[in-house]
Every structure is written in C-alpha cells, then in structure tokens.
Amino acid sequence: MTRKTKLFAAVVAALSAQAWAVPVDFHGYLRSGSGSGSEGGNVACFQINAPAFGGDVGRSGRLGNECDTYGELAFDAGLGETMGIGFKLHTMVAFGSQQIQDYEQSVPAWRQAWIEATNVGSGALANATMWAGKRFYKRHDVHIADFFWSADTGPGAGIENVDLGMGGAKFSYALMRNGSASFGNTGGNSNQDLLRATTIDNPGKAISNHDFRIEGIDVGMGSIDLGANFVLKNNGDTVTDIKDASGKVVGQSRKTIGGKGGVGLTVAHNYSNPFDLGGFNSFVFQYANDGANLDGTGKWWADENVKYRGWRVIEHLVFEPKGSDWNGAVFFGYGKERLYNESNGKLNWGDRKDSSTTTLVVRPVYHFNEAYSVAFEAGTTRVKPGTGDSYYLNKFTIAPQLSAGKGFWARPVLRAYYTLANWNKAAGNPAATGRDLGVELPQYRGKTNGSSYGVQMEAWW
After folding, report:
1. What domains are defined for the chain?
2. In angstroms, rounded to a whole number, what is the distance separating the alpha carbons of residues 345 and 352?
C-alpha cells in the first residue's frame, strides 16, 4: 500500500468513526469524607442487625453515619433508531474503598450493562420498552436510611410499561437470573468491593426470578403499585469433606439436594403533595416466603431445608412545602421474619420464633438561604430477636451544610457533622468503620454510647 493510499484509508476511517459517534450522557453518584470518634482512631459509624430490613436500617439513619468512599459512574448512549424503535445503551461501574488513605485500590464492579429498545409496537406497546442485560430493575429506596425496599438486580431481560388501559396503569415483566457466587479475595478481608473479584462458585446452582408488576393504578387519592416475584427452585451440589479417624481430610463427596422456591408480594400506595406539604408519601406492604426475599430478590443459596417467612410495612414521607424554609423526610418501618434450616429434623441455625424490627428516622432541614442550611437527623432501631434479649440503637446527628440549592434533593452538598449514639449491652459493639462497616472498632467494646464527628461530600448528577 502506497503512502497516499494509507493516508486516504486513515482519513476514511476517521470520518467513519465520526459518523458513528454518538453523544454520551454521563451521570452518577459519589460520597466521601473523613473524621474520627469519641474513642479516637478511624471515623466511627454505628449499626446493629435489623431482621426483615437488612443492615442499613440498623444504622438508625445514614446522616453522619457513613464511613466509606463510594461511587457509581454511569454512561448512557443512544445507538440509533429504525422503524420508530429507538435503541439505547446503559452502563454503570461502581467502586468503594475504606476511606483511610489517598491511594486505595479496589476492584470496580460492573453493576449495569444493558440495552433497551423503546416504542416497540403500537397500541398497548406504543410506549413499551424491551430490554436485556444486567441492570438495576425498577429499584425503590428510602434515601435517609440508604435502604432499598425494592432491589431486583442482576442479569435478565423483560418488557415494561405495557399500557393496560386502566387509568394509566402499566404492566411489566422481567426474568432475572442470579447464580452461586464466589469471591476471590486478595486483601485479607471479604467486605464488599474490597480487593475481591466475583467468580462462579457452583455453576449448577442458579435461580429464575419471575418479576411481575402493575404500576400506576389510579385510585383517586394517589396510585397503587402491585408486584409479585415467583422464585423457582433449582438443584445444586453440596460438597462434604471426607475425614479419616485423625480428622485429616482425605477426599470429598458430592450430593445433589433440591432447591427451594418462594413467592414475594408487594403493594405500594404513592401520593404526591400529601396535605399540601409538597414531596410525596409512599406506604408499602411486603411479604415473602422460603426462597424469596422481601425486596423482590431470590435466595440463590436456598436449598430444600430452608424455611423462611417475613413481612414488613414501610412509611416514607418527603416534605417540601412551598414558601417554607423547612423540608425533610420521615421513615418508619416495622417487620417480622423467621429464617432457619432444618436438616434431618434438627434445627441447625436461625430462629423458630419471629424476629421483629421497629425503626424510625426523621430528618428535617432548615435553609438559611439557597446555599446554607442545617440538617438534623434523629433515629431509633429496636429489635426483638427470636431468641435472646432485645437490643436497640439510638442516633442523633446535626450537620451544617453548603449545597447547590434549597431543595431537599439539592446536590452536591458539603457538610460537617456531629453524631451521638447509644445502645444497650445486648446490642454488643455496634461501632465499626470502613466499606460496609466491615471493620469493628474495638475501643467501643463494653460501652453503651459513643460519638463521631467529621466532614462529608455527597453528589449525584
């Protein structure tokens, strides 16, 4: 190929690349900070186990109670259109670190990688979307608790927003598939996002989660959303070590055991501008059994011996009255669950009796002007386990803030904070630090109160 031919080919390639270039929408989430506690050392956070709600609710509120650096970077791009059908790519990379030094390596996670096709038909399908890939599927959260009450995520495919002709109601269906995972750990700590790579553990064990939703049913005073998750059972191998008389492992035996399916149900009532307070109000009821979880996900590890039952109610209010210098949010939750494994008629782990959790978090914010404000957050979480003594965690935080606007959701924000917490002896030591609060702070052992202070930035865009 001559020099001129090479130059011509290079120009054609460059022009072709420009012709195929598409605008990319960049958005995401980020938080980071620093601080310490009343007993010195790393920044302190406080959390107890909260059955039926997961770990985050056990913090009794997230304000002034986050001890990590975490971010999600999302890139979306339109990929073209044909016959009126549009195609769009969605990707997201997430990362988290311990928030202890400037150079902290962590293994990033591909949280989302999926493509949607919009306006896939006519009539009921005129505004419907088909999709496939790995995504956060119709998640719903309570921000002040960093708690996702709907969290069906992972690889899957589906169709959504099919018009049912009932006052704006839409139907959606998704098939999600999550399998047995193993985490290759190189950092001496198995916490989420900390120097670990996710690999396939048992390739013969995975679950099918059929997710059905009817959303936006107009009931005059707001709307109703209905959800049902049908988790199908799956077989999997159990590996048992074979030991000699001295206890030395001399081999392994494999046994195929049956999986365990389950059902999850959700009813949510949503109401905008309740009592002319601005914002919105959501009231949610959820139930799940056996292989299904309350948040719409499934237990890929559940075998035929697992027995589970749980239910909870959630009240989530965000208020932003017009003309007022106050706004904020309120979260209340109450739930019960029972999880145990019976093998050969014997109780191996968990509780035969229900464990119950009651949690309440209130965060009012007073705005001096468009930029300066002060946030207050008071929370309590109380747990009555199936066995053992009841325990609790109370938390109060005050946080002067500088934010890009006066709204409750205005971000970015820079805040300083001071947090007070107390608990009873049955709660053990709730003080921890780092990503997922995976590192206990031993200096709080034997105590029933503590405090922390620091600064934090939070942004989404």
Report:
1. 33-460 (2.40.170.10)
2. 13
The string of DSSP letters for 206-235 reads EEEEEEEEEEEEE-SSSEEEEEEEEEEP--
What does the alpha-carbon distance between residue 312 and residue 124 come to, in Å, rounded to a whole number? 34
Distance CA 156, CA 195 (A): 26
Strands (E), 259-299: 262-272, 280-289
pLDDT 10s digits, 149-185: 999 999 999 999 999 998 889 999 999 999 888 776 5
Q: Which neighbouring-strand residues pair with 158?
A: 131, 174
Phi, psi for residue 275 in degrees, rounded to 5: 55, 30
Q: Give pLDDT tens digits for 375-395.
A: 999 999 999 999 899 999 999
Scored b (16 or more CB within 10 A) or e, 54-70 reads bebbbbbbbbbbbbbbb
Instruction: Look at residues 111, 215, 113 and name the one whose alpha carbon lies nearest to residue 161.
Output: 215
Give the mean model confidence (pLDDT) for residues 90-97: 95
The pTM (predicted TM-score) of the whole model is 0.89
pLDDT of residue 345: 59
What residue type is assigned to position 413 of the chain?
A: V
Q: Report which of residues 407 and 183 the model is more confident about.
A: 407
Six token digits for residue 373: 């404000």
Torsion of CA 318, 324, 325, 331, to 10 degrees: -20
